[in-house]
Specification:
The complex is a heterodimer of chains A (about 325) and B (about 80). Chain A is α/β, with parallel strands linked by helices. Chain A is built from 14 helices and eleven strands. In chain A, a hairpin with a 2-residue loop joins β4 and β5. Classes of the chains: A alpha/beta (about 325), B mainly alpha (about 80).
């Protein structure tokens, strides 16, 4: 019963059961008090932070009002300084307004704006703060403005600012949930359990599932098909260079380099791949390590048995074609 | 005639608004004419030309104010939804 009510609040949002339950708690609290804590959504890219935040915002209806509060979302990477933030955001959109305000990529907020937000968001019994900037006093009433932050990199956030927020971590998507996301985003019929194979290449990424649904739509329109099955998937993987587990071509190159030379040093790997050490570590090694395809030990990097098996099977299955 | 005319000030409406000088500076070039309240100028101990407020005169002033658009690079990327 409770689950059904939660699902009603978040239609067409797959998975994220724990996050939805927390949000439902605050939505119900908001209905009674007009107040929510400042929310901090934390998740890797493509996991649906913005979608979840918007779905949450849609449910924030003030007492006595027929519909939800207006919505303002900003990309924090485009904020330069406090003056610009005040001129372009606070004065025209927030002063004396009822609004849900989302700050996306909030780890990019400049320091002076973060410091101002410490004052603005400071919890207090009256749920009202006043922030002075230049000649203006901005009175922030938490009954009127609801704050939602979203970030992929919570470690870069100002600690006291994090402390003022209720942190909600989004879960990684299971393959079954990714299958549901694909089905939600296309009318194509899937046969021969092909969705199970597709889901394994999506890297646990909801946005990846949406993009895959679009690609499948393009493929089916191009080939005048309404049903997608195993032979279609094989053609699509070849056309779009989709590798097993959804590896990127550069990750595959990295595995190949490791297979050619056991105990490879990072510097040596960087030279072979023509990239900097930090880019290799940040962009390519993480996913391979997550799937235990290689390991790092004191002598250097080397393929695991799983990594060797991956390459062997890839060569057997794909390279010959 | 009280109670027969439909013209006049609506209860609760105001003629004046506040805006920061920084915001005006951002939008207007230095030589632009700015229309302000006479009492405001007097309170500042300054002198200014008289101005007849009507639509035609205001349009002329705005047209000659040479509005300076915000540099696209300086704009904060935002999305507003009021009816959603």
């Amino acid at each position: 019963m409770a689950t059904t009510q939660t699902e009603k609040l978040f239609p067409n949002i797959v998975g994220q059961t724990a996050a939805k339950r927390i949000m439902r708690f605050y939505i119900e609290g908001h209905s009674a008090s007009n107040i929510i804590p400042h929310i901090m959504l934390v998740a890797p890219k493509g996991c649906g932070k913005t979608t979840m935040a918007e779905a949450f915002g849609r449910n924030l209806v003030q007492k006595g009002e027929p519909k939800q509060k207006p919505w303002l979302s900003i990309n924090c990477s485009s904020i330069k300084n406090l003056e610009q933030f005040f001129d372009q955001i606070v004065m025209p959109h927030l002063m004396d307004k009822d609004i849900t305000f989302m700050l996306d990529e909030c780890h990019m907020i400049p320091t002076d704006v973060q410091n101002a937000l410490l004052t603005v968001l400071n919890p207090n019994p009256n749920n009202v703060n006043t922030f002075s900037f230049g000649e203006f006093d901005w009175t922030v009433d938490f009954k009127r403005i609801s704050f939602i932050f979203a970030t992929t990199e919570s470690q870069k956030m100002n600690e006291p600012l994090m402390d003022r927020c209720k942190r909600i971590d989004l879960d990684e998507y299971s393959n079954e949930e990714l299958e549901d996301i694909i089905k939600l985003n296309t009318k194509i019929v899937f046969r021969q359990n092909v969705l199970e194979d597709i889901a394994t290449t999506l890297r646990g990424n909801a946005r990846g599932a949406q993009k895959m649904a679009n690609d499948i739509d393009i493929y089916c329109k191009k080939n005048v098909k309404k049903v997608f099955q195993q032979n279609d998937w094989k053609r699509l993987t070849r056309d779009l260079d989709i590798l097993p587990l959804g590896l990127h071509r550069m990750e595959m190159r990295l595995l190949r380099a490791l297979s050619e030379q056991p105990f490879t040093r990072l510097t040596n790997l960087a030279a072979k791949l023509g990239m900097s050490r930090s880019v290799i570590q940040r962009d390519f090694e993480m996913f391979l390590q997550k799937h235990c395809l290689f390991e790092v030990n004191p002598l250097g990097r080397q393929l695991t048995k799983k990594g060797q098996k991956y390459l062997k099977e890839y060569d057997k299955e794909y390279a010959s074609k | 005639m009280a109670g027969t005319s439909k013209s006049g000030k609506t209860k609760g409406s105001t003629s004046f608004v506040r805006i920061s000088l920084a915001e005006l500076n951002r939008c207007l070039k230095p030589e632009a004419s700015v229309i302000v309240n006479r009492r405001y100028v007097e309170a500042l101990n300054m002198e200014a030309e008289a101005f007849q407020t009507n639509t035609k005169n205001l349009k002329t002033v705005v047209k000659n104010s040479t509005v300076a658009p915000i540099d696209e690079k300086e704009k904060i990327q935002l999305e507003v939804k009021t009816d959603w």
